[in-house]
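Budget justification, computational time. The allocation requested in the original proposal was used primarily to generate structure tokens for proteins on the priority list. As evidence of use, we reproduce two of the resulting records. The first is shown immediately below.
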Amino acid sequence: MTHEFDLLVIGAGSGGVRCARIAAGHGARVAVVESRHWGGTCVNLGCVPKKLMVQASEYGDMVEDSHAFGWNSTRGTHDWAKLIAAKDQEITRLNGIYVSMLEKAGITLLTGHARFENAHTVRIEPSPLAPTEAPRTVTAKHIVIATGSTPMKPDIPGAEHAITSDEAFHLSARPERVVIVGSGYIGIEFAGIFAGLGSKVDLVYRHELPLRGFDEDMRAAMKEAIHVRGITQHAPASPTQISKNGSTYTVTLNNGHTIETDCVFLATGRRPKIDSLGLETTGVKTAENGRIKVDSKRETSQPGIYAIGDVTDHLNLTPVAIAEGHNLADRLFGKERPRSWSLRTTPKAVFFSPPLASVGLSEAEAAQHGTVDIYFTRFTPMRHTLSGRKDRKTVMKLVVDQDSQKVVGAHILGDDAAEMMQGVAVAVTAELRKVDFDRTVGIHPTSAEELVTMRTRTRETPATR
């Protein structure tokens, strides 16, 4: 059967766009369909605007810190509307870049909501991005689902009164008081944003420590950093009800406490955005958590249909989706062996103030494979010996497999942690040993030099296997 396209990508986020561009570069006839905004969640309602807002939240502290260095500066008031306008302008610019990249690659751009009619046929109906676009049906030999994820709310009374990250980027005014529920990336990062801009923030989360899934020492360090930031933590606790009282809200917790606030922000997870794709017509299977099942080649249970990014149950990070899309396009249309990525050593970062970054295994994960040596340091970074923020600590940790002496995990909480970690991730991916760190000359004076001067083992952790 002859199809209109060799590849149809549903979703113009980072992963889908990379897949489409690489496939087109190999000579494939490619189309991309997008229903909401070019660039996907990361560009429009995720990583990019959130990082800009994190940066905005740090300038007030910088002004105060400058006094200790001799500057006669004055902290003014923050203009929320100006920040949002500047952020929106940058997002519009990036939207245009994504469209331009796709057009220059010779890719057909389709705007609308896609719904499968069968495994090779997709119906495209009008959507918010193009409400007047005429419906159209297209066929493709290969179809990639890259529709990402969307925020979800807990099933509690009054949840409709709360916002999610989607709405937080477009608030008309900054709330003076905000309750944030959830201690994953989104909850912690927005807690830091609002606190830095002057809001009173209450952070509610279910476990004793935030950031479930991260190394335990770093979770404890983040809990302390959240406290230092002036954020009130309610843990372990969960909301049981949200009630509206005029222009204010009351959040009731399962420990009996109540919090009155101007805004309730639910950062309680995300789910794959697949509800209206018509997957029931294709034979594509999903897991119990609703995410699409794929094999190691990103192919679904239906031959010819693939899924990448947040719709799957793999690492839900933008660079991972990009790697998956690139690899898939190479495999389907490239003449050479596909490029590979070390997804097991994917670095990650939480952009709080200070940020946390990590690569490789946590101490507990590493101990499942054998005895590990732990190297740990905690100190006041040079800047804050003058600024007076001596409670703003930097924490670093190396996890070393005792038998091989390979550095299998690295974790940093502190200023510029993410910038440092990208380089460390190369070393961990290359399976360098602790002696390779030890024989590397440090850059002085920096916080990063501590990574190569931690010579004395802090402790030995027995194997748990």
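The second record produced under the same allocation is shown here.
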Amino acid sequence: MTIWPPKPQDLRRPAYKSLADVLVRAVDAGELRSGDRLPTHRTLAYDLGLSVQTVSRAYDELIRRGFIAGEVGRGTFVRAGRSDTKPPFVPDSHNGEFIDFSILMPVFEPLHLDEMQRALTRLGTDLPTSAVSAFRPSTALRKYNAAAGKWLTLCGVNPSSQGLLITNGNTSAMTIALMTVASSGDLVVTEELGHHTLKALSRYLGLRIQGLEIDREGVVPGAFAAACEKSQVKAIYLLPTGLNPQAATMSLERRRELVEIARRYDVLIIENDAWGPLQPDRPDPIAAIAPERTFYFTSLTKCIMPGLRFGFLTMPEAFESAAANRHLVTNWMATPLMAEIGSRWIDDGTAERLLQWQMKALGKRNQLAAEVLADIPFNASANGMHVWLPTPGSWTEDGFVAHARLNGVAVAPGSAFAMSETVARRGIRICLGAETDQTLERGLTVISRLARSNPEPALLTL
């Protein structure tokens, strides 16, 4: 039985939403593929016995969800489906062929492996039974709340003023936050260049996502206010402290401006602070300014060790039960063994010692990037894990990425972070954490040479 086109009797009320949902299911089932041309509004309306206005409304809904796109003079076409979402990083299948600047991760050296081996050895002699036997989330994880509170305090968040969930890292926290603040059809706004999984995740959850104009600090307050005036905005998702693709850090004044707008229009805030206390002298988290409406998350994964999936989500107390329920049905609970290791490291000072080591290592790498890319405009943040290179000279974004790969260097295109196809700002994200000091300098030298040269399209055919 085929899904597309639907039979008129299979459509439910409201017909426009039912028609849109059928097309989504057809994309997921592979019956409709990227590039397939759809019937005109009038033709589909006639075939299904609907009004042209109903079909137009269904197509508008699908455009908002990112499933179809209209091209003037050509028609309406299916865009990449859910399974076609591509990450900005190079998959593992490259087998070390490239110097990898495409994936965002902290510096990892043998000392990190040594610390984990010591932790596992100690667990072998005094592993608490609850870490491997407890099946009720409250029983298994309540004991780790104190350590979580210590780390959140180091991040500038007062855990006593909000509800707390322990999660398996930032992605889990992000998903729970979105599921808690918004329902299918609700509008969430964010930076026009933002988190690379947010667009796809919002689509999976049936949320509408809209990118807002950004400047050197992040979201422009006027753009946020205008969006709230035009539509009912349920939440704003922000990466205010260096983590965003452009490596921008939002000033305290800007944070307060956005909070004031959120309060005026009763908009909830999701603050992604995955790096936590990695950057010195950073402004107060938005969660410290507006705890009554902010969902804040961070973890030890980005700032300590990639494999330490131990994270924290705080939320206004009024939402604590709702967030816990959504965490229960999607994750059940965070992994107690990871929580045990992470909590011990927080309590005995290992986590903060590794944090300080990471800050120094990334500080040196940012200094190296500044030296190699001297006189080439780029954005960076203190101890950040990446730099942002606006597309240089006459290069196109795609052309620069392709030429870098031809020269053995993988970088992330800015388009991977765009919330829409019309984002004018283009550039390259260059991650600093994955490689050794030696390969980092070699790869940055390749980037510097390309940025100072003119593109050679003929190379793309080699």
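A brief technical remark on that second record: The radius of gyration is 24 Å.
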